[in-house]
Each structure stands twice: as structure tokens, then as C-alpha cells.
Amino acid sequence: TFTPRVFSGIQPSGNLHLGNYLGALKRFAAAQNEGIESIYCMVDLHAITVWQDPADLRRATRELCAGFIASGLDPEKSILINQSQVPEHAQLAWIFNCVARMGWMQRMTQWKDKAGKNAQNASLGLFAYPSLMAADILIYHATHVPVGEDQKQHLELTRDIAAKFNHDYGVDFFPLTEPVIEGAATRVMSLRDGSKKMSKSDPSDASRINMTDDADTIAKKIRKAKTDPEPLPDNTDELDERPEARNLVNIYAALADMPVEQVIADHAGQNFATFKPSLADLAVAKLAPIAEEMSRLMGEQDEIDRILTRGAERARAITAPILRQTYDIVGL
Ligand code: ADP
Ligand code: NA
């Protein structure tokens, strides 16, 4: 009974990388012509759950906006916003803080990973992060959220919050949102460690390909990527035991818009000394035009700010009525 609507967000907290591109940005751009209303968000309120230098944050938010557009998102077709410019996200998050349970948050693996052994010193915001994420999604009554694997648990929590709200207040007001996790690159791994996902927060720059890396840097990082000494197999099953090889093949498939089986068929028996340069050429061919467009847009700050102001106006036409109804239901 809910109209299909898509929401997804990315943190403006450092370098956009190949995992963000393949797991998120590229798919957003591909989906925008399906005629479903879509909202894409720079989640700056999420970024400050850990310390951000204010000037860096402002720059990263604009750079992320440039990244969305350079990846092919059309701000006329989709609604492109910066989270803090749409205050209903934070307002609904407070209500959800009162719906969600402490125990639910404590079970989140991202909380455990990010807070680590020093949880007493983590911010309260980092702990409550999934509640704000639920609000980001549900303030639009979004039905679908395209994300990478890493966000699956947070999406389950979003459904739990919606279900508990609906149950506690005896309404059918918030949808049970579906994660959309598909394609070869739902989990791009670190180039240095096949057991860790590629991430903005990895201290090793060699672990990731940044969307703004130049061609030489991309080639060097791929050349130095950790691999095993065996040539590529002739079937995908054998990749299961070889996480680093699988990662590079997955990246190739996602960049080339090819099934993994096709990549294996084309490159079976090749050594990495041969495969890696092909992958580097492909990555440069796909990423260089995007980096170029990002840098052009970064020179047009007024244009970016205008796009975000317009996006916030369009977003608030959706979020303000939903917040008002929520307040009514709650008795506020
Ligand atoms: P990061 O984890 O690097 O800080 P975000 O949390 O801002 O990135 O995630 C933004 C989007 O990019 C989410 O949809 C997330 O699932 C996706 N994403 C992040 N890292 C990866 C990865 N290594 N592989 C695939 N998708 C990813
Ligand atoms: Na993440």
C-alpha cells in the first residue's frame, strides 16, 4: 500500500572510493530512469558521530555532491540533498530514539567495530547512528534502499523500528523497507586485506582506490594489490577459497558490466601480472572521466549549493507532512 520510493545515503567523511562507486553511486545512476521517485543524501549528521574538522566536512559534502552528479545522477530526476538541510531527519530520529531499544543498538556489528574496546568514549551519536539512519529512510516512507552488504543489519533494524512504532501506536504508518543488495560489487574488499571491506575509514590509502586518484596511482595500487601466486581459474567455484582473486575479478565484472562468469571465461589461466594491468586500464577508463567531472564541479561551488538548496525544498515537501502526521500519532 506504499508507493515505491527509493532512498540512499553516503557519508561525507573522507575519500569516495571504488566500493562507494560500485556498491552505491553507479547503481543509483543506473536506477534513476526507472521512473521511481528517488532521494539521495549526503549524510553529514552521520559523519559527525566521529570528529570532523568543520572546513573539511564542508568540503567533503560538496565533493560528495559532485561525486553523485559526476557518477551520472541527474538532480532534476532524483532529489539530491544534504541531510542537515532537511531538519525532519533529525526530528524523526529523536522519536525513533524513544522507540528503539538499547539492546538493539548494542548488537550492531558496525557499532562494535567502530567503537571497539573504547565504547565508553564513543559518542552517544555513534551508538544511536542506526536510529538516525532509520529516520533518514522512513521520513520519506521509502520502500527500497539500494546499499552494499555492510548496511544489511542496519536495514533490518530500520524494519524493527518501523514495526515497533506501528505496533505501539496501533497504526500502519511506516513501511517495512527492503534493502536492495545486488550485483557483483555489493562488497568490494580492501586491496591490502581480503577479509576487510574497502572503506573510507581504513588508515591505509593503498587499501582503496579513491574516485579522485589519478591514472598512475590507480595502476600502482592495483599492481600492488595483495594476491596469491596462482593464475586465474577457469571456473568461479575455485574463487571461493581465494578472496583476493575473487575481489579483483568482482571489481572487473562490476566495472565492465559483465557477469563474473564472463570475466573468468575471458581471463582463465592468466597470471596476475597480466590480469592486473587489464584491470587497471579498465578502472582508469571508467573512473578518469568521473574524476574530471568532479573536479570541474568543485570549481562551481555556487552551482552545487544551488542544487542542494533546491533538493532540500523538494525533500521538505515530502518530509514535513510525514513528520506532522508522526507527531499527531505520538501525541506531540
Ligand atoms: P564507508 O563505509 O566507506 O564510510 P558509507 O558508510 O558512507 O561508506 O557507505 C556509503 C554507501 O557505499 C553504502 O551504500 C555502502 O553500503 C556502500 N559501500 C561502502 N563501502 C563499500 C564496499 N566496500 N563495497 C560495496 N559497497 C560499499
Ligand atoms: Na559503511
TrEMBL record:
Binding site for L-tryptophan: 136
GO molecular function: ATP binding; tryptophan-tRNA ligase activity
GO cellular component: cytosol
Keywords per UniProt: Aminoacyl-tRNA synthetase, ATP-binding, Cytoplasm, Ligase, Nucleotide-binding, Protein biosynthesis
Residue sites binding ATP per the record: 11-13, 19-20, 148-150, 188, 197-201
Top-level taxon of the source organism: Bacteria
GO BP annotation list: tryptophanyl-tRNA aminoacylation
Subcellular location: Cytoplasm
Gene3D superfamilies: HUPs (3.40.50.620), Tyrosyl-Transfer RNA Synthetase (1.10.240.10)
Motif stretch ('KMSKS' region): 197-201
Catalysis performed (reactions): tRNA(Trp) + L-tryptophan + ATP = L-tryptophyl-tRNA(Trp) + AMP + diphosphate + H(+)
Alphabetized CDD domains for the sequence: TrpRS_core (cd00806)
Enzyme superclass (EC): ligase
Intervals of motif 'HIGH' region: 12-20
InterPro entries for the chain: aa-tRNA-synth_I_CS (IPR001412), aa-tRNA-synth_Ic (IPR002305), Rossmann-like_a/b/a_fold (IPR014729), Trp-tRNA-ligase (IPR002306), Trp-tRNA-ligase_bac-type (IPR024109), Trp-tRNA_synthetase (IPR050203)
Enzyme Commission number(s): 6.1.1.2
One Pfam match: tRNA-synt_1b
Family annotation (SUPFAM superfamilies): Nucleotidylyl transferase
Described function: Catalyzes the attachment of tryptophan to tRNA(Trp).
Entry-linked HAMAP family: Trp_tRNA_synth_B
Annotated family: Belongs to the class-I aminoacyl-tRNA synthetase family.
Oligomeric and partner information: Homodimer.
Protein name as catalogued: Tryptophan--tRNA ligase
Protein source organism: Antarcticimicrobium luteum
Gene (name only): trpS
